[in-house]
Amino acid sequence: MLLNKLRRLLGMEKQILLSVPDTFPTWHSRYGEDTHFASKIKGILPPMKIHALKSGVIFWEDACRKLATGNYSLRIVYLEDRPTGKVYYPIANCKTLHTQRARYDKASQKILVEGKPVAVETVAGNEGLACNDFLEFLDKYDEREFVIVHFTGFRY
Question: Which pTM was predicted?
Fold first, then answer.
């Protein structure tokens, strides 16, 4: 316990990295354009980004448990691939992490968050995206389960 407190004081605690893209990916119609996610996470630009959609449900649920121990911190970063390797640009550090399992139901055009239907427009806004841009991201997940990684106190 004392060792964990000392690590935190010295900034040596283990980190969980949550990467968000700085530009739209190659498969998106807005490929290469800036997402402005850093400014949206910091609340500088609307709409504010208060969570991130991720695959790897088990990984993120485990990360949530690790963060609860106090031995870890969450670091939100931009990830840039360069020929020399990956470069991480810090956006924010958080002590809060919560996950909710979700799935896109194409038939009802709703996001099912832990079985509860939520309007796509609502989730899109909280993801920091316009609805049509968000729907392109949802196509990536098809109807498979994904996780909403919350880094604020908000929950659906």
Answer: 0.85
